[in-house]
Design brief:
alpha/beta, 8-stranded parallel barrel, 9 helices
């Protein structure tokens, strides 16, 4: 699959359920535990069933949310991650790839590949990471699918925590990796000029990603990114039921309590759906069409 299959006439609107391991870990629920993994499947199926009709694509992890693909609306495209969805990520290291999983598997599922990369232009591993991404991109091109690179530019401890430095680091990273993917997913650093510069520097689509749990802040970031030229957005936590409600909904055996399920589903079918529709409206009203 190619990135144009992830867009409609207004742009790209992706929902990620691949981030569930991190969400559960924040509630002290270990995804490697069998019951927690089963819980992730239950939650992701409902998220996908409810939200995919209002998205242009859904991001899945082959490790924990793969079987939720069956709940996806046929009109929503498919994005599959390559890297492990670990909660303990060393940003200095190369991404750890999912065992027994590769871009050929993604092609067989008619999906677009997605790779998350922690990167800093001045890090010792910068050239190794560039090569790593370039090799994956070449493999994707060989099998006939596109690669979306989620680029997370981290802050080095030796640097002064200055906003100007962070903005320049992000722009430099984008330039260094722009020819090694077919699309980018970027964080918004609250600077419209940098976002607009990124738009002019890239020959591939880019979308804004917000990891904010607070919906109003996430909405503000997405709006600003789209107004600066982003082709769309990637959202997750901000439109999901509150993370703490997951842990509160478990009985002592680690299973969802029956009485808590209707509350969860009601949130998704009202608040979650309405938030997604509002973001779609923001995309249609504000995206710059080149």
């Amino acid at each position: 699959m190619h990135i144009p299959a992830l867009r409609d006439q207004n742009g790209i609107a992706l929902v990620s359920v691949a981030s569930l391991p991190q969400i559960l870990d924040a509630q002290e629920l270990n995804i490697t535990d069998a019951k927690t993994a089963a819980l992730a499947q239950t939650i992701s199926k409902e998220l996908v069933r409810t939200l995919s009709p209002h998205a242009t694509g859904i991001v899945f992890s082959p490790e924990y949310t793969y079987y939720s693909i069956l709940q996806k609306s046929e009109n929503a495209g498919l994005v599959l991650t390559i890297e492990k969805q670990s909660v303990d990520v060393d940003p200095m290291a190369l991404p750890a790839l999912v065992d027994r999983w590769n871009v050929e598997n993604i092609r067989q599922n008619y999906g677009v590949a997605k790779l998350r990369l922690y990167y800093h232009p001045s890090e010792r591993q910068a050239l190794a990471k560039q090569k790593f991404v370039a090799e994956i991109h070449e493999h994707c091109r060989h099998v006939g699918i596109d690669l979306m690179l989620e680029l997370l530019v981290y802050h080095q401890a030796s640097e002064a925590a200055e906003r100007e430095t962070q903005l320049q680091d992000q722009l430099t990273a984008v330039v260094e990796l722009r020819d090694k993917c077919d699309g980018m997913i970027l964080e918004y650093l609250e600077d419209p000029l940098t976002a607009a510069t990124i738009t002019t520097e890239l020959d591939v689509p880019w979308i804004i990603s917000s990891t904010e749990a607070d919906y109003e802040r996430a909405k503000s970031e997405i709006r600003a990114g789209i107004e600066a030229g982003a082709d769309g957005f990637l959202i997750s936590t901000a439109i999901f039921p509150p993370a703490e409600s997951i842990k509160n909904a478990l009985n002592p055996n680690g299973n969802l309590m029956a009485e808590s399920v209707p509350e969860w589903f009601t949130f998704l079918n009202t608040v979650g759906r309405d938030r997604m529709l509002e973001l779609r409206r923001i995309l249609s009203e504000n995206r710059i069409v080149s």
